[in-house]
Amino acid sequence: RDLDNDLRAALLHEEFRVHYQPLVDSRTRHIVAVEALLRWQRPDGRDLGPDVFIPVAEESGLINAIGAWVLRRACTDALRWGIKLSVNISAAQLRNPEFPFQLGQILEETGFPPERLELEITETCLVLDPLVAERSLDLVRGLGVDVVLDDFGTGYASIGFLRQFRFEKLKLDRSLVVDSAVDESLRAMMLSSISMARALKMRVTAEGVETEDQAAMVRSAGCDHIQGWLFFAPMPAGEVAQHLTAEV
Ligand code: G
Ligand code: G
Ligand code: MN
Ligand code: NA
């Protein structure tokens, strides 16, 4: 309850920030996209990560207001970057029938091009209520926004599941990337996941790449994009602009 009240106050007093982690092309290593990652700077300095406070906000329903705030902030920041923007969406947001309309409104208000926006969802978002989720995703796609399956390799996502939801993109979870670099049978599984994604016309991002060895491995495995500390950690909006200017 206490944390939930703190979150309400945080929204009101603008204690949230959005940081951005660039994704690079696996071959050219140029920045092709950013993932928006929510940060909370509490006045007492005791910062909490989204892995701690997002579940609390989901429980109370406050995630709808926080999620809308993140989308509006991120679309405003990324408007002039000319690259794709990826935003994480919670199960509770996807279940909210207002969500697709809210999203359309934010795109209109900010002028952000829908074809440059991607929503990252996890499979738990979809298994809880697949019919509602599918309808929401259809509406989202109708706006021209892509849908990305996040954290792939940590759950139970099956071929049937991938066929049903036809994601535009798959993000291989960090644990799969890290373990594949040292375990041959896991590497074989990762390779077959990538060929399956290819067969379904999905692009693939490898997450959590921290070493050159991992980067070489996921690149030769056929990943299109790489995200991880080897290239960039999450950073404030101003720094993204600097990196983009430095690249051209
Ligand atoms: O950035 P970090 O590693 O601390 O993120 C931890 C978790 O919080 C990740 O699973 C990430 O997807 C999630 N997360 C970060 N920002 C957001 C957000 O704006 N909305 C939602 N729903 N999840 C987020
Ligand atoms: O669940 P999701 O994939 O949205 O979470 C992304 C999280 O992974 C963010 O909290 C981000 O800070 C973290 N992250 C990004 N790159 C790396 C990395 O190279 N190593 C580790 N350990 N974490 C990373
Ligand atoms: Mn994500
Ligand atoms: Na992940």
Describe what you observe in this structure.
The protein is an alpha/beta fold and 248 residues long. It has one domain (20-32, 66-247): EAL domain (TIM Barrel, Alpha-Beta Barrel), CATH 3.20.20. Helix content is 50%, strand content 19%. The chain has 12 helices and 8 strands. The protein has helices at 2-12, 50-60, 63-78, 91-95, 99-110, 123-127, 130-142, 159-165, 174-180, 184-199, 212-221, 237-247, and strands spanning 16-25, 31-40, 84-88, 117-121, 146-152, 169-172, 203-206, 225-226. It has an 8-stranded mixed barrel with strand order 1-2-3-4-5-6-7-8, surrounded by 6 helices. α11 links the parallel β7 (203-206) and β8. α3 (63-78) runs parallel beside α5 (99-110) and α5 packs parallel to α7 (130-142). The radius of gyration is 18 Å and the shape is globular. The structure holds guanosine-5'-monophosphate (2 copies), manganese (II) ion and sodium ion (NA). The site of one guanosine-5'-monophosphate has 14 residues, from β5. The site of one guanosine-5'-monophosphate has 11 residues, from β2 and α2.
Low-confidence regions: none
Strand content: 15-25%
Label the structural class.
alpha/beta
CATH topology: TIM Barrel
Number of strands: 8
| CATH class call | Alpha Beta
Determine the fraction of residues in helical runs and give it as a percent range. 40-55%
What overall form do the CA principal axes indicate? globular
Ends apart, CA distance between termini: 49 Å
Protein name: Bifunctional diguanylate cyclase/phosphodiesterase
Organism: Pelagerythrobacter rhizovicinus
